[in-house]
Task: structure prediction
Amino acid sequence: MEKLAEIYSGKAKKLFQTTQENILLVEYLNQATALNGLRKDTVEGKAMLNNQISAHIYQYLNQKGHKTHFVEEVSPTQQLVQALTIIPIEVVLRNITAGSFSKRFGIEEGIPLDKPIIEFYYKSDALDDPFINEDHVAFLAIASLKEIATIKEMTLAINESLKDYFKQLDIILVDFKLEFGKDQDGNIVLADEISPDTCRLWDKNSHEHLDKDVYRRDLGDLVSVYQEVLNRIQAL
Ligand code: ADP
Ligand code: UDP
Result:
């Protein structure tokens, strides 16, 4: 398997074609961003941590029978994934109030929700990822109603698996963002990364932040917090 042309350079990762058809190489970068890329810092060691944490979580989700893009980790900062046509929606699921939800509704952080809340954001850096509903998704022809129903069903099922996984690590899964893509047969498949960059993770006992809020809110050292998450995963 050889790395061929770069096809995308994003805020946290680069994508490359490979000698294997429909398989992409994802290279994680030592880059942290917030505020839609307005704030950007080089963080030594972040690529390795996110790649490895995401790979462990995806291996678990594959074992649990979820349909995901993950193939294998090939180096400390690289993994192979199935090439998909990404559906430009960021799907956020919330188990506990926090972040933009708390801000939007003027509700304090940390209140458990009776049932998970799913939100959609239109994945567009130029528009700052606006909040959208299912009618907007239909209007923008981003996905069909049936596909949206499948995405919601998959997101709820993935939430159940992830909650169980993090529980074993003494971590509370507050909320997270997922992306989905379509394979050549039109099947919906889970894509992108799952890491402390894309999930809110709180220590079960101290409620200490073990996620990107440490960077967003200047609460401490991102690398040592992400390393703590990886240590707990490796100790499983
Ligand atoms: P951003 O695009 O927001 O700057 P990243 O730096 O994480 O974010 O870039 C990774 C890109 O790769 C994202 O746009 C994501 O949608 C895309 N992607 C993730 N998984 C796949 C996949 N399996 N096939 C194609 N594209 C993918
Ligand atoms: N999230 C993400 N990428 C984004 C926006 C949000 O991975 O571009 C994740 C974020 O880490 C959190 C969840 O989605 O776990 C909900 O984020 P929220 O809407 O509260 O926004 P925030 O206040 O974190 O910007």
In short: The two ends are 31 Å apart (CA to CA).
